[in-house]
Amino acid sequence: MRAKYVLSEAALGLWRNVTMTVAMIITMAVSLTMLGASGLLFLQVDKIQELFYAQIQVSIFLTPEITDEQRAELDQTLAADPLVSNYYFESKDDAYQQFQSLFADQPDLVGAVEPESLPESFRVQLTDPEQFQQVSEQYVTAEGVSEIVDQEELVGEMFSILAAVQTMALVGAAIMAAAAMMLVANVIQVAAYSKRREVAVMKLVGAPNWFIQTPFVLEAVVAGVIGALLAFGALAAGKQFLIDGPLSPLTNLLTPVPWRNVLLTLPALAVIGALVSAVTGWVTLRFYLRK
Amino acid sequence: MIRLERVTKTYPKAARPSLDDVDVMIDKGEFVFFIGPSGSGKSTIIKLLLREITPTRGRVVVNNRDVSGMRYWRIPTFRRSLGCVFQDFRLLPNRTAYENVAFALEVIGRSRGVARRVVPEVLELVGLGGKEHRYPNELSGGEQQRVAVARAFVNRPLMLLADEPTGNLDPDTSIEIMRLLDRINRTGTTVVMVTHDSNIVNQMRRRVVEIENGRIVRDQPRGVYG
């Protein structure tokens, strides 16, 4: 019977102050959407990093004047190098074929280039892609090497963009979360004020503190959970209509966002939303009702 | 039962203390008036006994428990051993007389069955039999105060605190309320009443503690308003 009282009081409180409740739910939803998006991005960045690092090559371009001995010597050094996981030699003809297939839609360009004008190269995969610098220093001075190019620099730039997007989402989530918490505090104070007579009587006759506070905290928690549901809806819609829609070429190039991850955000956001609301509400009441 | 030991209470920003080094002892079953002009500090005593405030110095002991140092979470249980009525009745306007009294039982976890048995009994005791389902605005001031007394008494507290309970009532109604408090006192309940209603004090002839500027200036059994 007391549970019924607590629940009906919470429902009544949400309804009595409906505009503030809606404001609280919306801020909560926006904040949690941003948090969820940055969480998904975080899971994604890890996977993208793995994928790309596995594919990263260091290209050691050779000078046209390289002798057969110099080439053979380089070949041996690479074979013995512990930093190299595997490598292959790309001849002028291989390079020309690559070039042809790469620029198949620009026959003029293909026509203007001879196999002879393309450089030979060793394509090297590193055991640890982060050690590019070391490898580069080691080979750039070797006889017959003209240039060393690492794809990691390109990939690194992409990752720093992803990281920046993620940071922005987190900062946005934090700002919205602060706004949501202030709204929760305000809603609870208004609710406690509108019920001040009941609260005063309850305190006077010795109702336990949890019994006085629970309806208010529950109000905040319900709003937090509704906010989380909306945030999940937004993320699911984003997956359905953006990532699997117009953005799918981009995401296929990187790694696809699995539904499993999106579904994972539902319990995570619900717990975070409920917890943030409950703690904010409880702390507010501690100050507001204490006497 | 109640002991104030060298109690001083200075409110923040106040120039002088509301209570200044006050010693009082009240036995179980006593009926005590605290009298004095407004601002003398007599209402501060009720607040201290309810543990709404804590003393700046000294000890407040109620039912052998030091209230001044009591932890926040123990207060609710402590307050169940007290009943309290005020000048402004403090009834819930959207509940009937019955519901107002039952509310005090419900919120401390008593079952609806208990309320159905106890509430009509206590409403009968305060003389409101037949008016259980009236709302506060359908009752006279005296009747509203009776509901408040019923609510304070329904848990059979050891002690009833009354802060100017007749302050909003006409003399005849006041006397009826005093008869009611007297009856409750005769069941063994200690009654502490703060008032400046000289008529009532003079008629009741009970112990009178007079406070002026935060100090006790008179404490006499079977006293008058002075």
List keywords for this structure.
heterodimer, A: 291 residues, Alpha-Beta Plaits, elongated, B: 226 residues, alpha/beta, Rossmann fold, 4-stranded antiparallel beta sheet, 7 helices, 32% helix
Can you give a write-up of this model?
- Chain A folds into 2 domains: 2-52 and 156-285, no CATH class; 57-150, Alpha-Beta Plaits, CATH 3.30.70.
- In chain A, helix 1 (2-16) crosses helix 9 (209-243), helix 2 packs across helix 9 (209-243) and helix 7 packs antiparallel against helix 9.
- By secondary structure, chain A is an alpha+beta fold.
- Helix content of chain A is 75%, strand content 8%.
- With 226 residues, chain B is α/β, with parallel strands linked by helices.
- Chain B has 2 domains: 1-81 and 157-226, Rossmann fold, CATH 3.40.50.300; 93-155.
- Chain B is built from 7 helices and 10 strands.
- In chain B, the strands form 2 sheets. Chain B has a 6-stranded mixed beta sheet, with helices on both faces.
- The radius of gyration of chain B is 17 Å and the shape is globular.
- The two termini of chain B are 26 Å apart.
- Chains A and B meet through helix 8 of A and helix 2 and helix 3 of B.
Describe the strand arrangement of the main beta sheet of chain A, using strand numbers: 2-3-1-4
Distance between the termini of chain B: 26 Å
Q: What's the number of extended β-strand segments of chain B?
A: 10
Mean pLDDT of chain B: 93
- Please state the CA-atom Rg of chain B, rounded to the nearest Å: 17 Å
Q: What string gives the helices and strands of chain A in order?
A: HHEHEHHEHEHHHHH
- CATH hierarchy: architecture of the largest domain in chain B: 3-Layer(aba) Sandwich
| Helix percentage range of chain B | 25-40%
Overall pLDDT confidence of chain A: 81
Helix content of chain A: over 70%
